[in-house]
Design brief:
single chain, two-stranded antiparallel sheet, ImuA, P-loop_NTPase, Protein ImuA
Length: 281
């Protein structure tokens, strides 16, 4: 039964691509489940777009974890592909099955492609995004990644829009440069509350919205992943904990580690989705 459902979903995506319609799933947004964040994004992350995540540390574990969770939400029951270089595998290590399961990711549904260098990685990413049967794509780049310029990111954006496949660029140890990404984020690990019996707490992230093409940016949230429900929640049990970004883009006041001050004012939605060819400029 499960195989029939996956086959039918892939067929629908293929037909949509032949008709020239973005092969997005029934909703045009990837919902995180955390209402304040989804509301600020007009319903969630846009499908069929490129979203860029910058890890706050050189290790990049929090960025990888969040990118994989969001990619899993975007993919649903379809395959999830993670592309990285062999050097990235040596630096960041290989994924751990039980750890993936704790993030709600079925290791059997995750495909990992190891490329020789960034040039091969970006070519493979464009080819992968042209496949409408793919659920979502994570592309990991470490260091400055000079080949990921505005032209390369525009190729990725056009391929994503054509197929409806959502791409998540994981940047570790690199600085933001002009790109055609729909949104740009800073991700850092956050402390989590211990479970009963002093067990390890749930995965928590400090998430800062650095840039958004179709709306307001400069906001930050602390998210906790509830694997049992398959959704995010705020660290305060559902309260809106929106913050302004500090100078370091981390969501902390003044770039410090403490004293997160809420940002006053309502979020104003600007529904101005445009093709990548217009947005890349």
């Amino acid at each position: 039964m499960a195989e029939s459902v996956k086959t039918l979903a892939a067929l629908r995506r293929h037909i949509a691509s032949l008709e020239g319609v973005p092969a997005s799933q029934p909703h045009a947004r990837v919902e995180t489940g955390y209402a304040p964040l989804d509301l600020a994004l007009d319903g969630g992350l846009a499908r069929g777009r490129v979203h860029e995540f910058f890890a706050a540390t050189e290790e990049g574990g929090a960025g990888a974890g969040l990118a994989l969770i969001l990619a899993r939400l975007a993919a649903g029951e379809a395959p999830l592909l993670w592309l990285r270089t062999m050097a990235a595998g040596r630096a960041g290590g290989m994924p751990y099955g039980p750890g993936l399961a704790a993030l709600g990711i079925d290791p059997a549904r995750l495909l990992i492609g190891a490329m020789a260098d960034d040039a091969m990685l970006l070519r493979a990413a464009v080819d992968a995004l042209r496949c409408p049967a793919l659920g979502a794509l994570v592309v990991e780049l470490r260091g400055p990644a000079p080949l990921l310029d505005l032209t390369a990111s525009r190729r990725l954006a056009l391929a994503a829009e054509s197929s409806g496949v959502t791409a998540f660029l994981l940047r570790v140890g690199g600085d933001p440069v002009p790109s055609a990404a729909d949104t740009r984020w800073r991700v850092a690990a956050a402390p989590s509350l211990p479970l009963p019996g002093n067990g390890p707490g749930r995965s928590a992230f400090d998430l800062g919205l650095l840039r958004r093409r179709a709306g307001r940016d400069g906001l930050g949230w602390r998210l906790v992943w509830d694997n049992g429900r398959g959704m995010f929640e705020g660290s305060g049990g559902g309260r809106d904990e929106r913050h302004g970004l500090g100078q370091d883009g981390s969501g902390r006041e003044g770039g410090g580690r403490d004293g997160q001050a809420p940002l006053s004012g309502a979020v104003v939605s600007v529904p101005a989705d445009r093709p990548a060819s217009d947005r890349a400029a």
